[in-house]
Every structure is written in structure tokens, then in C-alpha cells.
Amino acid sequence: MKIGKLFLLMITYFILAVLLPSVVFAQDAVACEKEVVVQADDWLSKIAEKVYGDVFAYPAIAEATNRANATDDTFAFIENVDIIEVGWKLCVPSADDAAAIINRPLETPDVTVSPAEPTGIEVGRLVLATTTSTYDSGLLDVILPDFEARYGADVEVIAVGTGQAIQLGENGDADVILVHARSREDAFVEAGYGVNRQDVMYNDFVVVGPSADPAGIKGMTDVAAALAKIAETGSTFISRGDDSGTHTKEQSLWQASGLPLVEAASIKNADQTFVKPDGDWYLSVGQGMGATLTIAEEQQAYTLSDRATFLARTLEGIDLEILVEGDSRLFNPYGVIAVNPELHLTVNTAGAEAFIEWITSLETQKLISQFGVAEFGQALFTPDSAAWNAAK
User: Is residue 303 exposed (0-12), middle (13-18) or buried (19+ Cβ within 10 Å)?
Assistant: First the structure.
């Protein structure tokens, strides 16, 4: 009898030892603020940098994903934080939950922004060719007065699509460009048109659309699959069609969708051949981001937008919602490049170099990190300069 009781106790202890940790683990599950599907060239620290601005917060994503896996095996189980596979679904907790998991505040450089004081350098008129997103979001209105006060500058902003901004640089009609299409930026430098490219910041793209969501894509984290559903349902999609960085990104996402595509010319660049899905539900409007969002709202249609411009437009009461986000293919980095003075002697080289030094400095990066926080509870752009990352 005693042996039987001892055996029963041993069995009970074994069952509790095996099952209790998983029960406790499930109870400690963390809510996923975002679900991210791993793409090629992803790693946990890169995702942590994008989401939190803290490259060392990656253990929080691994821990949250493993906890989610305990109750939902569609989430990955990460045994080694240095190894993640394409297609894995990750659980990204909120910043507060991430800080609690790693047991420390998320890191941002401790930088005090001093009042703008003249540096003694007078750069005069400076032509900045940039994307509509930096203009439409209101970022330039906030940060440029600091540069102008410090450097005696008069900045003329030409806000166009990335393709047009690059073309202005190639023609010598701008002194410096601030754009967001990395492959085209690299080609601009490699062809000798630009010098001293520097990382500045990043945000992400989102697919927005009407609350009715006729294609049924809300909550999807695979953006290519979401675009395929829009096409399959014949739901109206508004494309910028303007050879911008957003248009370039949209091109790559349609190609990833696996849908048959046809050739199309950009409204703003007839010399460049693009691709698009075939169907009258797809409308190319040749407009900047702000105008494209207005058209999408009027037609209760879908479009691809950078997050900053979309959130800025919500202050004006735009009636669209973010429906798809979190796919790492929606990452949107910005770079600044001086136009090569060897090709265009009239370029304001001193002004361009001063601008690059200023926009990548810790103080300006701090200004960027604060933009949008008061209105939206989140920064609309994440600083990404070498100086900022080194300070972290």
C-alpha cells in the first residue's frame, strides 16, 4: 500500500513538473501589439531597432513570441535568438511590456536640444529636393527653422517624389536631396551624381483603406497577400504613379504578390517603365502622398502610404484606417545626399555639407525623435544617423 501511494505521488509530481511550467507560462502571456512575419535579411535586433529604437531590446520579442507559442503554435518558438527563419510569425509587445520583460527602460540617447544659436557660418540659399512625406507630415516645418537660425540659411524646399528629387539632383537643380528609395540612392551615388550619403531616419509604410474593408484585409501581416486579396476582389486601389519612393515600394510589393502584371509608364516619368496589376480597379493618379490620400478617401479606396503622412492627415479628419502593417517589407529608410559639385559648379557645396552635418547630429535627431509624440503618442520618424546610433 505504501509503495502504491509512493508510486502515485511520484506520478503526480512528474505530471506537475511537466505541465505546471507551461500553465504558468501561458498565464504570463504578453499581448502582441504587432505581429511580424520574418522576411529575408531580418534579424531580431533589426526588428527591435525598427519598433522600439533600441537594438538591444530584441530579447523582449523573443520572449513574447515564445510565450505566445505556448497557446498558439502559429507563433514561432525561438530557441536561439541569433537564428530566425523566413516566414516565422513573431509577437512584438508594446514598448511598456518590452521594457518590463527586459527589466529596464528602452534606451534612447540622452540629448538636450539647446536653443538655436548662430554658428557663424552663413550658407545662404540652399535648395533641398525632398519627398512629399517629409513635407506633408509637417516634419520640415518643425526642424528647418533650427537649421536656418544656426547657419544663416534660406532653405528652398522642393517637395516631389523621390524619382523627381533625384532627377533634380542629377540636373544640378538642387544642392542636397533627402529621399527614401535606397537602391535608387545608391545608384545616384555610384553614377557620380551624389556624394556623402548618410542615413537619417526611418518609419514604415502602411496599407490604408475604408473601414468597410471590402477586400477583408484588416489585420493581415503579409502585405503581398493583402494586395493579392485587393486584386482578387476588384477593390479600388489608388497608386501614386509618380516615380516616388512610395511608388517604388509599391512596385516591389505587387511583384511579391505573385499576380500577373503589365507594363505601365509613370505619369511623372514617361521614360521609365513600371509594372501594375491589370484591371480598371487600379488607378494611377500621379500625385503626392497627401493628394493620393485625399483621392483614396473620396473613393473609399485602398492605398499605400508612409505612416507619418497618414497620421498627419488624420488630424484633418481623413476617413481611412490603417489595415495592414508590421510586415518588415514595409520598412522605409530615408537618406540625405549632397549633389556632386564636380558635375555642377553652381551647387552650394558648403550649404549641403552643413545640412548633412546638421540633420545627422544628435540634437537634430532628438528633434526628429520628438516629432509627433505629443499628437499621436508616438514619433512619426525614428532617428537613424550614425551619431544617434553610436550614442545609444
Answer: buried
CATH T-level assignment (fold) for domain 204-331: D-Maltodextrin-Binding Protein; domain 2 (3.40.190)
Cα 356 from chain centre: 21
Domain boundaries, the chain: 2-102, 124-202+332-391, 204-331
**CA-CA-CA-CA torsion sign (183, 187, 193, 196):** positive
Contact 116, 343 (CB under 8 A): no
Grid-cell match 476582389, residue found: 233
DSSP E strand stretches across the chain: 34-37, 89-92, 124-130, 153-159, 176-179, 194-209, 237-239, 261-265, 273-277, 282-284, 302-306, 321-324, 331-339, 382-383
Q: 181-237 pLDDT, tens per residue?
A: 999 999 999 999 999 999 999 989 999 999 999 999 999 989 999 999 999 999 999
Q: What's the pTM value of the predicted model, to 2 decimals?
A: 0.75
Instruction: Tell me if 272 sits within 8 A of 266, measured CB to CB.
Output: yes
124-202+332-391 fold: D-Maltodextrin-Binding Protein; domain 2 (3.40.190)
Q: Name the residue among 378, 334, 324 with its Cα closest to residue 356.
A: 334
